[in-house]
């Protein structure tokens, strides 16, 4: 066998005379299937499904806080829209959870320089009650500084945790700089703090606070926990630098509702082979309550649903495409966990989630590179004209598919450009106007291409068969 390969290389080595300029021992790059390329290029220029979905959802439903009536209205909207688009097996898979509901909130410096600061409560914050609490601010430049501080420095005070988050294309700062929000409240509570405020986990300089979830762990009792806007945090730092004691009055009212209902909305493009492993795509339907959740994650459900719809329009795929609009992602991935539990017996060819805004896809990664190199190379060749690079060291992306992947589903990540994402993420500014329609279409083209390559082949004109 080695001799045959060697002989082939010798033939190849002679090729420059025939016009080639180099040889390689790597397999030749795969070429995109012309039908997939044509579909990709059509979608890039013509998709309107994604815009229609995100425009419709953000306009007709608006904010969709998990396990509230607004999220229920969003599920009703989803069922109507997905049914009207021709998806099959459209249904809601309900689950119950404890909902956390925001009330009135405000903060002000009482002394030495009285003035209002803009704040929002973090998820699972304790309520101050309408009267609020008043305490002296104690400053920490990181969550680690708070962690090692003596209890005596914190007890009875309002902890303020600062940080220096900067934008990155891959969004990697969210892990490191998200720590003040995720762990800060627990450390502050364990040390006896009255309350805690963090600099918003954001990269903008607008007076918009960034909401987000946190949990009190390790036996910490819930205390009021909020996020100040970035400009207000910088203002507070300047006030603190004057060296005088700083007193804040903080009002963060909230309440919880036990046994509140959420749910996942499921829709399918049935495949020709109902027993073939499924292509699972989606995003999350719920949003934080400060805005209409256009980039988080109206865009993600719009992109993945539009891609599935383009597959439907092209014919019938061999494999079923399942779209899930997950419920209650923001408070901690409740929808993804409920879905994985309900569908433990299902088998997947791939699972992918879009939940990082609406800016262009710039690279992708998947373990198919190791498990199915031929398909991987075809995928890379098909995505390359969209200026999408291969990322060898990528990881699975998406809270909603985490449990499904943990149970063994192969994954794909189509990574979006994250430079702008944390300017708007979880703020009152997450609105439709932040979505660039041209970049949105590039996303739909990328997801359509991925589904087409992994579909097992699309039969034009084939009749869909309901799986019901
Ligand atoms: Zn999200």
Walk me through what this model shows:
This protein is an alpha/beta fold and 468 residues long. Helix content is 35%, strand content 24%. The protein has 16 helices and 16 strands. Strands 1, 2, 3, 4, 5, 6, 7, 8, 9, 11 and 12 form an eleven-stranded mixed sheet that branches. Helix 10 packs across helix 16 (437-454). The chain is elongated and about 75 Å long. Bound molecules: zinc ion. Zinc ion binds at residues 284, 296-297, 329, 355.
Average pLDDT figure: 93
What hetero molecules are bound to the protein chains?
A: zinc ion
Could you give the count of β-strands? 16
- How far apart the termini lie comes to 51 Å
How would you summarize the topology of this molecule?
Elements: H1 2-13, H2 34-46, H3 49-60, H4 69-84, E1 88-111, E2 115-117, E3 119-121, E4 133-140, H5 143-148, E5 158-161, H6 173-177, H7 179-182, H8 184-190, E6 195-199, E7 225-228, H9 230-241, E8 247-269, E9 278-284, H10 294-314, E10 316-317, E11 321-326, H11 334-342, E12 348-353, E13 361-366, H12 368-371, H13 373-383, E14 389-390, H14 399-406, E15 412-416, H15 421-424, H16 437-454, E16 458-459
Parallel strand pairs: 4-5, 5-6, 6-7, 9-11, 9-12, 13-14
Antiparallel strand pairs: 1-2, 1-8, 3-7, 4-8, 8-11, 10-16, 13-15
Helix pairs in contact: 2-16, 3-10, 10-16, 11-14, 13-16
Bound molecules: zinc ion.
């Amino acid at each position: 066998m080695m001799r045959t390969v060697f002989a082939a290389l010798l033939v190849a080595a002679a090729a420059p005379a025939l016009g080639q300029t180099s040889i390689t021992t790597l397999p030749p790059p795969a070429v995109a299937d012309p039908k997939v390329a044509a579909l990709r290029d059509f979608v890039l220029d013509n998709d309107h499904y994604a815009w229609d979905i995100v425009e419709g959802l953000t306009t007709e439903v608006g904010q969709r806080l998990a396990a509230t009536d607004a999220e229920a209205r969003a599920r009703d909207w989803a069922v109507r829209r997905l049914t009207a688009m021709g998806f099959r097996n459209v249904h809601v898979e309900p689950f119950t959870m404890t909902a956390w509901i925001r009330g009135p909130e405000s903060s002000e410096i009482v002394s030495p320089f009285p003035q209002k600061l803009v704040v929002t409560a973090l998820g699972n914050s304790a309520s101050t009650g309408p009267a609020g609490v008043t305490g002296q601010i104690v400053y920490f430049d990181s969550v680690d500084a708070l962690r090692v501080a003596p209890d005596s420095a914190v007890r009875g005070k309002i902890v303020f945790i600062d940080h220096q988050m900067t934008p990155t294309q891959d969004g990697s700062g969210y892990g490191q700089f998200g720590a003040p929000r995720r762990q800060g409240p627990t450390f502050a509570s364990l040390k006896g703090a009255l309350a805690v405020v963090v600099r918003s986990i954001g990269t903008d300089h607008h007076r918009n606070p960034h909401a987000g979830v946190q949990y009190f762990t390790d036996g910490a009792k819930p205390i009021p926990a909020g996020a100040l806007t970035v400009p207000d945090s910088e203002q507070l730092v300047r006030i603190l630098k004057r060296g005088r004691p700083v007193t804040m009055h903080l009002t963060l009212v909230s309440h919880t509702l036990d046994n509140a209902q959420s749910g996942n909305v499921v829709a399918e493009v049935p495949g020709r082979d109902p027993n073939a492993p499924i292509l699972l795509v989606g995003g999350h339907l719920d949003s934080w309550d400060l805005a209409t959740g256009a980039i988080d994650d109206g865009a993600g459900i719009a992109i993945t649903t539009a891609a599935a719809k383009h597959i439907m329009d092209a014919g019938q795929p061999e494999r079923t495409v399942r779209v899930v609009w997950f419920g209650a992602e923001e408070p901690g991935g409740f929808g993804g966990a409920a879905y994985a539990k309900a569908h433990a017996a299902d088998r997947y060819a791939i699972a992918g989630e879009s939940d990082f805004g609406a800016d262009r896809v710039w690279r992708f990664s998947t373990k198919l590179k190791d498990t199915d190199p031929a398909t991987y190379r075809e995928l890379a060749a098909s995505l390359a004209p969209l200026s999408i690079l291969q990322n060898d060291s990528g990881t699975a992306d998406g809270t909603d598919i985490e449990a499904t992947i943990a149970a063994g589903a192969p994954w794909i990540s189509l990574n979006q450009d994250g430079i702008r994402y944390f300017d708007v993420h979880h703020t009152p500014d997450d609105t439709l106007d932040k979505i660039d329609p041209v970049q949105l279409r590039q996303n739909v083209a990328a997801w359509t291409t991925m589904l087409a390559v992994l579909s097992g082949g699309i039969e034009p004109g084939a009749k869909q068969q309901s799986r019901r």
